[in-house]
Specification:
By secondary structure, this protein is mainly alpha-helical. The protein has four helices and no strands.
């Protein structure tokens, strides 16, 4: 028997998971998709939370690397591009999650 999951809950949870990066740059923003990953039984929400958590971790690592590169002045434009990327990609993920709640957005 196939499990059916509530599409409205799926939309909300996937959008919250991808949009949590706008909360802050601290651990709290990565904690939201982490909690959703563990408490949800919906496979689409779980995969979306994993993707959002992966995006958070990648942004942190790139911020650290580009921040270190500011010492040689090449990091400033890279940090600017990362800031734009950090705003645009989650917005696209939220839009995709609301438009197609049955598929997982891959960054």
């Amino acid at each position: 028997m196939e499990n059916t999951f509530d599409r409205d809950k799926r939309k909300i949870f996937t959008a919250v998971s991808h949009g949590s990066i706008f909360v802050s740059q601290l651990l709290f923003s990565a904690g939201i998709p982490l909690v959703l990953w563990f408490i949800s039984e919906d496979p689409v929400v779980k995969d979306s939370a994993k993707e959002a958590l992966n995006f958070h971790l990648n942004v942190w690592v790139y911020s650290l690397i580009f921040g270190l590169l500011t010492w040689v002045l090449i990091g400033w434009p890279l940090l600017g591009l990362l800031a734009i990327f950090q705003i645009v990609m989650p917005i696209l993920a939220i839009a995709a999650a609301l438009r197609q709640p049955d598929s997982v957005y891959r960054y």
